[in-house]
Amino acid sequence: MNTKTMSHSSDPDTSRIAAESVDPHESARLKLAILDLLGEAPRTADELTAVYFRLGEINGWPRLHDAHNVKRRLSELHAKHHVVRESGDRRPSAHGRPSTVWELAVPLDEARAVVNAA
Fold first, then answer.
1. Rounded distance between C-alpha atoms, residue 58 and residue 69, angstroms
2. Model pLDDT for residues 89-106, shown as the tens digit of each residue
3. Which pLDDT score is estimated for 3?
4. From the CA atom positions of the chain, what is the Rg in Å?
5. Rounded CA gap, 57 and 14, in Å?
6. pTM above 0.85, yes or no
7. φ, ψ for residue 45 (rounded to 5)?
8. What is the pLDDT of residues 22-58, one digit of tens each?
9. Could you give the angle at which helices 24-40 and 45-59 cross, rounded to 10 degrees?
10. The predicted structure's pLDDT at residue 1
């Protein structure tokens, strides 16, 4: 894994150390969990995060380092893997602003295969 792309040269040493400690398999497992949750129902990023925190330990999913991990992986699933898309719906977020509702762009099995192949 190229950890240099995960932190900036101007970042403090703690950021560099954190980037080096990231388990690449953990990121893939998080993406697969998000796909499973979207396979159940379209959700906003906030809704995904809340469900993930509630069910993560029970399902043996990777522990989240912060609440933005789900949003980062959701972004990758959309922009890099092209397996999720905006549903066209919006719901209020935790901050009261409208938030994008995400859904699977391909069948769940296909989405999981794309993520596993990456």
1. 18
2. 999 987 889 999 999 999
3. 43
4. 15
5. 26
6. no
7. -60, -40
8. 556 788 999 999 999 999 999 999 999 999 999 988 9
9. 110
10. 40
Please give the backbone phi and psi of residue 31, each rounded to the nearest 5 degrees, phi first: -60, -40
Structure tokens given for 79 = 């922009």
Q: Cα torsion at 87, 90, 93, 97 (round to 10°)?
A: 140
Select 26-117's CATH number: 1.10.10.10, 3.40.50.2300, 1.20.1250.20, 3.60.15.10: 1.10.10.10
The set of long-range contacts for 33-40, using a CB threshold of 8 Å and a minimum separation of 24, is 33/59, 33/61, 33/62, 34/70, 34/73, 34/74, 34/77, 34/84, 35/77, 35/83, 35/84, 35/104, 35/108, 35/111, 35/112, 35/115, 36/108, 38/84, 38/102, 38/103, 38/104, 39/104, 39/108, 39/111
Q: Residue type for 104, please? A: L
pLDDT band at 68 (very low <50, low <70, confident <90, very high): confident
